[in-house]
Amino acid sequence: MAEEKNSGNCHLPSFALGSALLGAVLLAYSQTYAFAWDEGFHLVAAKLIKSGKTPYLDFVFAQTPLNAYWNAAWMRIFGESWRAIHAIDALLTTVAIVLAADFLRSRIARVALLDARLRQWGTASILAVLVFAGANVYTVEFGTIGQAYALGLLLIVCAFRLTVTSVDRGRLLWLGLAGCLAGAAAGSTLLTAPAAPVLLIWALFYSPARKRLALGASFLAGAVISLLPLLALFARSPARVIFDVFRYHLFYRRSDWPGATRHDLETFTAWVGSPQAIILGLLAVTGIWFVAKKSGWDRTRRSEFYLCGWFALALGLHVSTAHPTFIQYYIFTVPFLGILAPVGMFAIVNRLATGDVEHDRANLRLPLWPLWGVCLLVCLNLAREIYDRRDDTSWPKMEAIARKVNEVTPAGAHLYADEPTYFLTRRTPPPGNEYISSHKLRLTAALSELVHIVPQPEFDRRIAAGVYDTLETCDEEDWIKERKLDEIYKQKAEVSDCAVFWDRAPRVTK
User: Fold this and answer.
1) Which of 32, 190, 391, 451 is least surrounded by Cβ atoms within 10 Å, i.e. has the fewest?
2) Residues 124 and 41 in one domain
3) pTM of the full predicted structure?
4) Arithmetic mean of pLDDT over the chain
């Protein structure tokens, strides 16, 4: 027993140092370059919730609601600051990746007693998870912003860890908590929806027959509890909730986007140009092969790594069905591929060192330089991506736009702007302008009114009529010319590739 304890704890100092370094990198990025355009919509939703409004009932919100309420709760503590939300999300993502690495640490601690190769490879493998998953481009870019990626990552990794531990030890309460966390992940973003069924099926398959009914009931009860907030909103307005959460995504996301199918095809093939994706995918597949064919581990240990593979496969297939889909959606597969990738690297190095010949496992030492070399390549790829995108739109740049808007817009004046500008200027969007992407929808008048959607032609009519004292847009020049904004307003300023118009010109009546 003492030997097993030491085997597990010998990696802790390096593990703690690597985890702290990952957290520092994610925090630094979150406060500088981290930005996604759709993030503005999520932060505006949280701001509206903080002010007492209810998603679906008071404004369109084409997401499940838990992440918005989560952000609103932090805004009540720290104020309406994107920096605070980013810092919290960087922490959540760090914890998710650390928990994934700790899963491999705990499993290596168990099997290393039987294999000296794993004892001396263990620390490197654990740190490699932090690199493969934590230094992934999309983990860094999207795990540090106010959208639901960070919270969803943490919830599904925690649900995974609890499910594995519950089945291993037969803990009903823990499996119920796993169901609750998996359901909460779906309540934060439907991109994680397969997590709950995959965990439930795996738990039932690998549990003793006599416990399956109780374990399944516990998991489902936890999942239902986590969805009670959404069900409560559904009870108040079924039509609005169904439209925002389901109908919008099934029928309207690709509205006014004739190139959506081509975009999806480009997304599906984007891995060809991504060294990180190629390395992570190939090593993960190799890891599964090693666990199944060459590891010699018992059924329980193998099944836990199989679950990583099933998790990544189910989530990857699910996000691929979104139309249109985006490459960042695959972020939810990264922790589980990150667990498998070091195992795959171990299999490759072991094969190169030994070939097909059996060696004395007690004395065999495997070289670590191939693993460190691959980790270095992953980190260099991340550094290059950050460098290439250093001039992209960021929150500090958007703050310059917001300062100009506040400078030229009196308190209480009517403002038409992008969601990030509404958030930064601390101004409430006019009804129907909380989610600008909804303007492209063309619904019946009754349905538009029900779900709080105002089509773009109506906003164009209001712009032409001079309703808005100030107009801010980051759209292209064609959008500005089509609406003749240079004729409607006498003043214009260009800030960070965006335009601010104010001081309405006198209307000429014919």
Assistant:
1) 391
2) yes
3) 0.92
4) 89
